[in-house]
Design brief:
The chain has eight helices and 19 strands. The protein is globular.
Length: 333
């Protein structure tokens, strides 16, 4: 996965999304400074074996669905780690004007944010989405291990439970540590992969997404090697019963950097009480012009879904068959 693709993924976390995409609800409120001071003295917590962490506000616990923290009232803190070189790209894109396109209305401008062993800045504002209004903070930081994006989102209804003073105190505890091994990062994922089917893991993104490939390259921007991406939904809003196929088809057709995406085969089944939708198809890599085969398996289970996307050269149907084996073996913890 290239820096540009990781940056695009980071930007997608800025918007509270609908169930057909990734839904995260979050917000803000004001609380006594004494609480904030107490929280600031606690040690930082590093979710998902990550290198980026902070001391969360009282009542927020490590999420089992993504790298970050959640509150029962709907507030969330999402931590996204990126390579060191992402810092220069982010500096030009995380401005009030640029973020306005996502619906994030920044109040004031970026302010410096102290980070132990590094530097950063934070933007504050509000964002309407899904009929609600969220207070949010977006902090961009960097340290020795790389660049970090910290997004705090608190719905208005959670203002009493997650005070603004607590959020401000938490942001001032952001810290970096040495990056965990890939093995430890995979072990911390909210799911297991029982059958790698000849693929190997190359990266964990946002604490919940796993990138697998077949071949010697760990970074393959030309997509010459078969690739699998495993990603669960972030939100807790269920896809309505009967809408699973429509949602799967919409996501299949909306793949970034692919053109002329067509479904050639569709299968709907069940896995216990979960609904499973598998799609096969073709597409064109807009960068190289190469024809690719694509497979997607989505498991809709109550308030969440899991998506496994695989693609390979059009002449490698065996790679897609093995991607389906990987998808069949993924189980949420």
């Amino acid at each position: 996965m290239s820096v540009r693709e990781r940056l695009r993924g980071a930007l997608s976390h800025l918007v509270p999304q609908s169930p057909a995409r990734r839904v995260i609800l979050a917000g803000l409120v004001f609380a006594p400074l004494a609480i904030a001071a107490r929280e600031a003295r606690a040690d930082p917590v590093f979710p998902g074996a990550g290198a980026l962490g902070l001391t969360p506000p009282t009542g927020m616990n490590v999420s089992r669905r993504f790298a970050g923290f959640e509150h029962p009232a709907g507030a969330s803190i999402i931590l996204v780690e990126m390579p060191p070189e992402a810092w220069d790209q982010i500096n030009g894109r995380f401005t009030p004007e640029a973020l306005a396109a996502t619906g994030f209305r920044v109040k004031g401008g970026a302010e410096p944010l102290p980070v132990a062993g590094g530097e950063g800045f934070v933007l504050r504002g509000t964002q309407p989405a899904n009929g609600l209004t969220y207070t949010k903070w977006v902090a961009v930081v960097r340290g020795a291990p790389g660049t970090g994006l910290v997004t705090v989102q608190v719905p208005e209804k959670a203002a009493r439970q997650v005070p603004a003073a607590s959020v401000e105190a938490a942001l001032r505890t952001i810290a970096f540590r040495a990056k965990a091994s890939l093995t430890d990062q995979v072990a911390a994922l909210p799911y297991t992969v029982g059958d790698m089917a000849g693929y190997r893991p190359t990266a964990v993104f946002a604490g919940n997404s796993l990138l697998l490939t077949e071949g010697p390259k760990d970074v393959d921007p030309e997509r010459e090697q078969p690739v699998i991406v495993v990603a669960p939904s972030l939100g807790q809003a269920p896809v309505p019963a009967g809408a699973e196929v429509a949602v799967a088809r919409r996501l299949f057709a909306a793949q970034k950097d692919f053109a002329d995406v067509n479904v050639t085969d569709e299968a709907r089944s069940s896995r216990g009480e979960a609904v499973v939708v598998r799609l096969r198809g073709t597409g064109t890599d807009t960068k190289s012009g190469r024809a690719l085969g694509v497979t997607q398996t989505m498991v809709f289970d109550g308030q969440r879904y899991l998506r496994v996307l695989g693609f390979a050269d059009a002449g490698r149907p065996d790679a897609l068959d093995r991607a389906d084996r990987v998808a069949a073996s993924v189980a949420m913890r």
